[in-house]
């Protein structure tokens, strides 16, 4: 847990923050909670089902599905780090959050977003090797490669994001404690400090842009090589078959990074647009992908679809026997 320091000036130190939720739509925020709760339920059930399927079906014990399992775990962490508190705000008006819980939420949100971006990057490399170097795929994308890639992504994000909550916690919050979001976003929290927070905000922007823009640039390069290789395919239907293996991945990447661009634009033009719009965009970016990712892969990937069917058939058989 992360704790804020006691103010040396003797002023009262903030021990908790207030999350305002969606102040512009308080009259119908209970109705808003219905689709958000539904998305949360879908995210939980879909990702858990996906993980059970990967674990029980030996045919899915391959590198590509290990990446999807990692994505499912990250999505479960993301939606659980935000949605329960958000629903508490909308249903019960539980807007207060302790400073330690707030700084902890900052860490997990930023860390998991970085891990998700890294997983998308490794999956893009997996598709690049599968299409551009198919004969060497089994020699390059091995179980050892998966372990090393996942370890690198986890270490990169857990270590480099760790200073964020500590930099936020060392600041003094001696007057304002109202966060204009539904969760503890780092910049929204440190901007409430009654001292200079340049170091904290600069560190976040540096880490975020180096992670996300770097990952996105490498993903774009991978797909440039993929599209070039696909255009050279001469066999009838070969190009469409090759692209179909990338369609699910491309769909999720486009959504993930498009919403990030929207967030940047709304943040830079915050004085021109209602505060509820960037607030809602932030919430949707943390809730929609966890519910969308397993559905897109479950529907569009034949092997996963068959694996899920096996899980449900086996569960029905066990329930009938009992």
TrEMBL record:
Q: Which GO terms describe its cellular component?
A: plasma membrane
Could you state one GO biological process linked to this protein?
cellular response to lipid
Q: Where in the cell is it found?
A: Membrane
For this chain, one GO molecular function annotation is: olfactory receptor activity
Keyword Transmembrane recorded:
yes
Q: Which domain of life is it from?
A: Eukaryota
Q: Which SMART domains does this chain map to?
A: 7TM_GPCR_Srsx
Residues spanning the membrane: 32-55, 67-94, 106-125, 137-155, 207-231, 243-265
| Key words, A-Z | G-protein coupled receptor, Membrane, Olfaction, Receptor, Sensory transduction, Transducer, Transmembrane, Transmembrane helix
Primary location recorded for the protein, binned into one broad class: membrane
Membrane topology term reads:
Multi-pass membrane protein
Q: Which Pfam families did the record assign? A: 7tm_4
Q: Where is the G-protein coupled receptors family 1 profile domain?
A: 46-297
**PANTHER family to which the protein is assigned, alphabetical:** OLFACTORY RECEPTOR 56B1, OLFACTORY RECEPTOR 56B1-RELATED
Name of this protein: Olfactory receptor 56A4-like
This protein's species is: Microcaecilia unicolor
